[in-house]
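Quick one, T. Sequence first:
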Amino acid sequence: MINTKETKDALKNFVKTAARRLCETNHDEMSEEEFLKVFVNDTYTLNALSIEPYRQGNCKNYKVSAQEGKYFLKIYPETVNAEYMRTVDKIRSSVNEELMLPLRNADGKTYSFINNRIAELYNFIKERKKSNRQEATERMKEAVKKIVEFHTKIRSSGIEDNKLECFNVIMRRTKGELKEHGDFFSRFIDTKKICAKIDLLIMSGEKHQIIHGDMQANNILLSRNQANIVDFERMKYGPATYDMAAFITSITYKDKDHIDFNNFSGCVKQYYSETDGSIYIRHLTDMIIARLAELTVSKYIHNRHESLKNILERLRLFMFYEDKLNELIALNTK
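Structure tokens:
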């Protein structure tokens, strides 16, 4: 006698296997939307109705509308592998609420593979009127507190990953690129002074640990009662002040003509009170300059998302920024 349930299950598995094989071999003949629909439906047992690009950046991001609800599909760059994701999963599960963690797929894992690239699916968080950056700026104290909590939890957890890109390597590369392109940069900034700052940071006694690596305000999501950190694809091994410098530059450098030093002053004061001065607070000013140098040099050399005009404006503000930073750090650490 034929078991109807077994027959249905076998047919269902056959369809899933065929769909997976289609994704792996013949997807060039499909549109991107059709291909991603098959992937989502098969891997997460959903009924996807539409898939559209959403806020593209370092990762490929998509908004998924399904019968079951709305979701966010994130496909990581090729440099992110399964071992890296295991480290990411340990960290974010210790600092974020359940709603901000990826959904489990049909195999019970938090990530899948699509075209040999790591992919994750999240519940889609309803967009708010204010941007993440604006929210983090207005609720700066909460954001700084979350960053300090993030670093503290990583230190106490004992999580390590010696394969992450090292801060010292990044800074040496920035220093080398500053020197290599000195004919251009030295017309706008004191490259020798910045290289000296980089050397001081490399030689400083600040302990290195796993850090976020891209802790700009857009990557801190603040809800009514919770603060969550997202986008872990650029984790590094380095000093905690690197993340703090990234956050400070993201909320103080508003545009090419305006640096908000009130935000800077408030950030430094809050960071100092949260860490009780135990983290090398005086390295923070040099770290901010080094962070700006890294971003500017990288964008100039690799031509990433920024015009030469904007790069020149950023360079023009370097030394002015440095003078104000040293003034304010002195006031806030007394």
